[in-house]
């Protein structure tokens, strides 16, 4: 997942740069996020990424342009800004998931926290 966090971070640096929001969105998604498959992401990020990916491929391309370019070209400024905000939210979710994995927190209710024997007070 570290690779995906790095990809989203790179996309964020593009989104925070200069230029029109549609141009930045096209570069951010096309260069860094288009190759990610939602199945590679944590369960908490799959649906949001699937929706973002769908928005980026909703328009059929014309005259040799790609589907990402065509879709962003047809977006309003508000829609493009919303897609950029989704990328920021997804990055935050991936960072949280990565931190949980590194800390070793239990992921589900069936996981039991095991207390080392030296911490258990004997009666």
Task: Explain this structure.
By secondary structure, this protein is mostly helical. The protein has one domain (2-119). The protein is 62% helix and 0% strand. It has five helices and no strands. 21% of the residues are buried. The model has no long low-confidence stretch (mean pLDDT 87).
Count of spatially separate domains: 1
Number of helices: 5
Structural class: mainly alpha
Mean pLDDT over the residues: 87
Strand residue percentage: under 5%
Low-confidence stretches: none
Distance between the termini: 44 Å
Overall helicity: 55-70%
Anisotropy-based shape? elongated
Radius of gyration over all CA atoms, rounded: 19 Å
Number of strands: 0
Order of helices and strands: HHHHH
User: How many strands, which pairing sense, and closed or not: the largest β-sheet?
Assistant: none
């Amino acid at each position: 997942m570290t690779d995906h966090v790095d990809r989203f971070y790179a996309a964020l640096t593009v989104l925070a740069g200069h230029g029109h929001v549609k141009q930045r969105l096209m570069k951010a998604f096309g260069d860094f996020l288009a190759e990610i498959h939602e199945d590679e992401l944590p369960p908490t990020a799959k649906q949001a990424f699937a929706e973002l990916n769908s928005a980026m491929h909703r328009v059929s391309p014309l005259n040799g342009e790609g589907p990402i370019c065509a879709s962003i070209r047809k977006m309003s400024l508000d829609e493009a800004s919303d897609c950029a905000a989704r990328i920021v939210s997804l990055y935050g979710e991936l960072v949280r998931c990565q931190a949980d994995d590194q800390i070793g927190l239990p992921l589900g209710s069936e996981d039991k926290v095991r207390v080392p024997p030296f911490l258990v007070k004997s009666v």
